[in-house]
Specification:
Layout: E1 2-5, E2 18-20, H1 23-30, E3 36-38, H2 44-73, E4 76-81, H3 95-104, E5 114-116, E6 124-131, E7 137-146
Parallel strand pairs: 4-7
Antiparallel strand pairs: 1-2, 1-3, 5-6, 6-7
Length: 153
């Protein structure tokens, strides 16, 4: 029996997909729990249209994400931090600071998407990875410099 899934179902399929399942599984579980709708010859075309619409939206999102990744790769951002005379930072650079810097450039990402190859505790230029999707990661350069306000108490 063909069923159009309304919600993601583990080991069956994702929402907005048409899947083939046994009649008993569909009638006794998927349909009563509102996880799916039975596909009949009458309604099949409308649900196929919904599947195509969802696929198109996924393609648009994927292309926008890859364009954002290309934009991130071209960035070199500068972060001003308080540091000791020897160039060591008072703390380390955290993902929130980097996310705020990216936001100023018009790139909205969450701090959980920011990853450092190693913790940044001194001045210099460091690679920073932004995880856009599970498979798409963009890397850019972060320059850490002193804020030139020596002990402004």
């Amino acid at each position: 029996m063909k069923v159009f899934l309304l919600k993601d179902v583990v080991n069956v399929g994702m929402a907005n997909q048409i899947v083939k399942v046994t009649e008993g599984y569909a009638v006794n579980y998927l349909i009563p729990k509102k996880f799916g709708v039975q596909i009949t010859p009458e309604n099949e075309k409308s649900y196929l249209g919904k599947v195509k619409t969802v696929e198109h939206k996924k393609e648009v999102i994927a292309s926008k994400t890859s364009m954002l990744g290309e934009r991130i790769k071209t960035l070199t951002l500068t972060l001003r931090k308080k540091m000791h005379d020897d160039g060591k930072l008072y703390g380390s650079v955290n993902p929130t600071e980097v996310a705020e810097l990216l936001a100023k450039e018009g790139v909205a990402v969450g701090k959980s998407q920011i990853e450092f190859e190693k913790s940044i505790k001194e001045k210099g230029t460091f690679p920073v990875i932004v995880k856009l999707t599970a498979k798409l990661h963009a890397k850019f350069s972060l320059r850490v410099v002193g804020d030139d306000q020596k002990n402004a108490h």
